[in-house]
Amino acid sequence: MVYLGMIFFQIVAPILVLLVLGAILQKKFRFNLKALSQLITYCFMPAAVFINLYETSIKLSVLGEVGLFIVLFIGSQMLLSHFLAKGLGLAKTEAAVFKNSVVLINSGNYGIPVAQMIFASQPIGVAIQVILVIFQNMTTYTYGLYNLISSTKSGLTILKDFIKMPIIHALIIGVAMNYFDIGIPPFIKIPIDHVADGFIAVALITLGAQLSQMEIKTMFNKTVFVSCLTRLIIGPAVALVIIFALGLNGVVAQSLFIASAFPTSRNSSSLALEYDIESATAAQTVLFSTIVSCITVTIVIYIADVLFT
Prior knowledge:
CATH architecture: Up-down Bundle
Mean pLDDT: 84
Number of domains: 1
Largest sheet: none
Order of helices and strands: HHHHHHHHHHHHH
Radius of gyration: 19 Å
Number of helices: 13
Oligomer: single chain
Helix content: over 70%
Number of strands: 0
């Protein structure tokens, strides 16, 4: 119990503090959230991704293990959410939002900060989380969009939007410069380091500001409750089965297991709002899962430490 308390106050509580700070600042100053989101997407996140990949060496065998896990895990979540939506008898639009809330995980401005805190002395743990962010973005702009607007947007347009994402460019450049051992002049490296160091605070404060804007009308809506239960409890349980089945261990297993427990991605709410499809339900799911994750993520971190350290 003491150890659980240490995990909460050293890892989860700092995240919660920054979320609350973001909510308070938003209430007082009314930030332009779109501008903040763009600042993260086009500046802070690419810098953090680039630095982590540039400074970390990952064996091809590890990449293979991570890739196989991701395919199995995301595939299992797609199937699980599909059958649950049918079992709940959800309407087509609500089912789309429900499935996105289960499959799309907040691996970016929640997952990477958590990974940076847990694996401060083990960069491979952060690098694995970065890989998960890439796959989650791919899932968001393919599966997520297809769920909501498959009849109004072509596959080519989705592909073009995905290729334009700065995080993809940062991934390619970071991996290439790492592989070819290309040095970076100090006058360029130092500013990138500064931006990357600021990612955690800016991302979490912005997430708190975004969550503070969401209306809570029916917090214990059946769809919201089942979605959070599936995302935060059943998801990690399925991930653990996959990890054992693949024979993974050490930092790789620990990182993947913890990553499976993160709350619903804010992108699921953003997409629903942008295309006006059950946006209230989507927003409530993001807010509720983020709040409850403070408890569930703490427990999963503890279990990961016991099983894989």
